[in-house]
Design a protein that fits this description.
The chain is α/β, with parallel strands linked by helices. α3 packs across α4, α5 packs antiparallel against α6 and α15 packs antiparallel against α16.
Length: about 475
């Protein structure tokens, strides 16, 4: 049995936007087993008082950093009575966080740097984001001492009042602000007054979660780091940068030159570097993405994600493509012995091709043009390919010969190594069409013809009849 078992295909979106609602949902369900790490990070933050700390939460793109920091933010918000949150939600989050030591009163600010990198100076948008944090209504409809303090910061730039200015933030580009600063020390003083007012009204400590800085234009990323270091040096503030340090170092070198020591430069800004833990991909694929590991196609999918080292985001996209092809797997459950080539190809080859399309287009092209069977051999040799009955002819069996596994007939004569049998199958599907004369090749219990390749092309193009576009 090497067909994907089960017939029904669900109608759902496997890709989640990192909204507060979805962060809360994943905090409850814990599909990738990261909750304990989220809780530990909260505990880490609670020990970063009495000094201004800056933490780099390091992880590759697509590794789930945004969800991670938003879940940390939810826990801190739930323990801050000044933060606007539904009572039921607050109680549920407090129940999830079972630490004996509860967080202090923290005001949190989530700041998507990429959203604002068309601005000339990050201070305006950062103060604006802090002013809005935890508000029940629109900023302009909620006058408070915080807004008055924020207005003073804006006045240091432009002399305009806050209400008229913040309505345009995020919608129009702020131009030439730096040239309008009347006095640097006055601006620094106004920012500290703003922090005084913000903490007095909303919390004892302030945590800024800075996201997507590694995606920003180099000049904006550099300016952000340097101006934060200069103007926001306050013991009540902790900065958490969720970044790919590798990408951020490239950004720094793009700005200062390839010979610049980006690692030492970043040491000036980050007091602590914490790597985001690996997710439980087995559980994530099984429970969240509904790709089981108890059938052949599912086993291959799990191995593709592992071998190609897909991020969580890539795994979601991969699952979406596999689900489009799922009706074909269902059809194969009813296949006859004449369709064993299709069944084998669907369960073993198509998941690999879909993964290659995402992983490396050059490698994908070499694979489908019959020039490189390495990805197929590497993946299939590591899973249950040897248990696949159609892989062998009726008189053949597998013999372990040291580290090698060989295929022998009933007389015990050595026929071929497993790797060579896989190469035969690969060439039967993707090799030159005139290589076999009559264009039919029997391998094991399977018969490969030109239709096999056409079948593969239709499925991997996602344009076959019955594709599940839901």
């Amino acid at each position: 049995d090497f067909i994907l078992r089960g017939g029904g295909y669900s109608v759902r979106n496997y890709s989640l936007n990192p909204t507060e609602e979805n962060a809360y949902k994943l905090l409850r369900e814990n599909p990738i087993q990261r909750n304990e790490y989220v809780f530990q990070f909260v505990r880490l933050l609670t020990h970063m008082e009495d000094n201004c700390y800056s933490v780099a939460l390091n992880g590759d793109w697509g590794s789930g950093k945004t969800f991670f920091v938003k879940q940390v933010k939810l826990i801190l918000d739930a323990h801050n009575p000044q933060f606007h949150m539904k009572d039921e939600t607050r109680r549920e989050i407090q129940t999830l966080y079972k630490a004996d030591e509860k967080p202090n009163s923290y005001a949190t600010v989530y700041y998507d740097a990429w959203t604002y990198d068309n601005h000339d100076d990050p201070i305006l948008s950062l103060v604006y984001a802090a002013s809005q944090s935890g508000q029940k209504a629109d900023l302009s409809d909620s006058p408070s001492h915080v807004l008055e303090a924020a207005a003073a910061v804006f006045d240091a730039f432009t002399g305009k009042n806050l209400t008229s200015l913040v309505k345009g933030l995020g919608k129009v580009e702020i131009k030439d602000r730096l040239s309008e600063i009347r006095d640097t020390e006055e601006l620094k003083s106004k920012i500290h007054e703003f922090i005084d007012t913000l903490t007095a009204e909303k919390a004892n400590q302030l945590v800024f979660f800075i996201d997507e800085l590694d995606r920003c234009k180099p000049d904006y990323a550099i300016r952000f780091l340097e101006r934060i270091k200069h103007y926001f040096d306050d013991e009540r503030i902790t900065f958490v940068f969720s970044v790919s340090l590798t990408q951020l170092q490239w950004t720094i070198r793009n700005y200062y030159g390839n010979g610049f020591d980006a690692t030492k430069y970043l040491d000036k800004f980050f007091d602590l570097r914490v790597s985001i833990p690996n997710a439980d991909y087995e559980r994530f694929l099984r429970d969240r993405l509904e790709i089981g590991s108890d059938e052949t196609a599912g086993i291959v999918c799990h191995e593709v994600v592992r071998q190609f080292n897909f991020s969580l985001r890539q795994a979601e996209r991969y699952a979406r493509l596999i689900k489009i092809a799922e009706p074909q797997f269902d059809w194969l459950r009813r296949s006859t012995s004449f369709d064993l080539d299709r069944a084998f190809t669907a369960s073993y080859i198509i998941p690999i091709i879909i993964g290659l399309q995402m992983y490396d287009l050059d490698m994908y092209h070499r694979f489908v043009t019959g020039n490189d069977s390495t990805p197929m051999k590497k993946i299939l040799m590591g899973i249950g390919i040897l248990e696949c009955t159609p892989f062998l002819a009726r008189e053949e069996s597998l013999i372990h010969n040291g580290e090698d596994i060989e295929i022998r007939d009933e007389s015990g004569v050595n026929l071929v190594k497993v790797a060579d049998r896989l190469e035969e199958i690969y060439q039967a599907i993707f090799g030159r069409k005139d290589v076999f004369g009559d264009r039919t090749k029997y391998i094991g219990m399977m018969r490969f013809t030109d239709r096999t390749r056409s079948y593969v092309e239709g499925i991997t193009a996602m344009l076959f009849p019955g594709a599940n576009y839901n």
